[in-house]
Amino acid sequence: MRKKSPIVRVLSAVVLIAFIAIGFNAGRLFIGDNAPSRLTDVTNILVAGVDVDGYRTDLILMVQVNTIDNKVSVLQIPRDTRVSNNRNDKKINSAYFSGIDTLKKEVRSVTGLYTDFFATITFDAFKEIVDALGGVTIDVPIDMNYHDPVQGLTIELKAGRQKLNGEEAMMFMRFRKNDDGTGYPMGDIDRNKAQAQFYSAVMKKTMSPVGVLKAPFIYSAVMENTTTDLNNREVRQLMFRVFRIGKNNINIYQLPGEPGYRGGVSYFICDEDETEELIDENFRH
């Protein structure tokens, strides 16, 4: 049996908050609607964090809500994962530029999993959620010093345990490398671990008394920055299913593989055999 990641048993804040907040559109989460539910016993939701220009996905998660086995499985897919496609850019994070259907297709080519529904969330939501919570405390693993005048992006964080406000949290989530080219020792692997730490911190505070009091502001932040094809009834059902399954049966996994170069370009190279094994053990397909 494959050992689970040390970050298992933590539901991505993006996933749970998005499920809840999407349904709060115009305050209608608990108001009945006539749209039929299309959910099945096993439902796959593709969740993508979209960058500032709306072209690339800095975060890609495949979330499977499985009421047969009573579990939720979340697969993190590194943004630089190399995919076989007809596009010039072979990194999966650029697939969204060609449309959500292209991203679905390329995620399936890597994982073998079909997408039933999708939710895209902008990084502005992370900033607004963290500010609504009054900041979150996490360990910044390395010094982060990056400046991109074209994007208007400034990342300046010191290593160590500290409380981050919304702006700093967005820096933390978006960081990939420093101005001098240094960064996470294992590239996207370490970046995904750092992001998972952020999800855990946000989730913990969201479920605290402070989070309960701030819930309307959190819902509003996500609602304004999320697009999905789930209807309100489906969001309600997913939310209740996740709560009923419980956090002890929610696991996050990272796509197996390692950094590498192809044609002089840096990629995350998926290990196809290990991926197949991980999917077979932890997902229904």
Describe, in plain words, how this protein is organized in 3D:
By secondary structure, the chain is α+β, with helices and mostly antiparallel strands. It has a single domain (13-273), classed as 3-Layer(aba) Sandwich (Aminopeptidase), CATH 3.40.630.190. 35% of the residues lie in helices and 25% in strands. It contains nine helices and twelve strands. It has helices at residues 13-22, 100-111, 123-133, 166-174, 188-206, 209-213, 215-223, 232-245, 272-282; strands at residues 42-50, 57-66, 71-76, 117-122, 136-140, 144-148, 153-157, 160-164, 226-228, 250-254, 257-262, 265-270. The strands form four sheets. Strands 9-4-1-2-3-10 form a six-stranded mixed β-sheet, with helices on both faces. A two-stranded antiparallel ribbon has the order 5-8. Strands 6-7 form a two-stranded antiparallel sheet. Strand 2 and strand 3 form a beta hairpin. The longest helix has 19 residues, at 188-206. The protein is globular. 41% of the residues are buried.
Note the main attributes of this structure.
285 residues; alpha+beta; Aminopeptidase; six-stranded mixed sheet; two-stranded antiparallel sheet; 9 helices; 12 strands; 35% helix; disordered N terminus
The fourth-level CATH homologous superfamily is LCP protein
CATH topology: Aminopeptidase
* Strand arrangement, major sheet: 9-4-1-2-3-10
The proportion of residues forming helix, as a percent range, comes to 25-40%
Structural class of the secondary elements?
A: alpha+beta
Mean pLDDT: 82
The ordered H/E elements are HEEEHEHEEEEHHHHEHEEEH
CATH architecture: 3-Layer(aba) Sandwich
Rounded radius of gyration (Å): 18 Å
Quote the distance from N terminus to C terminus: 18 Å
- Please tell me what the overall shape is: globular
DSSP summary, beta strand count: 12
Let me know the largest β-sheet. Answer: 6 strands, mixed
Q: Strand-residue fraction?
A: 15-25%
CATH top-level class: Alpha Beta
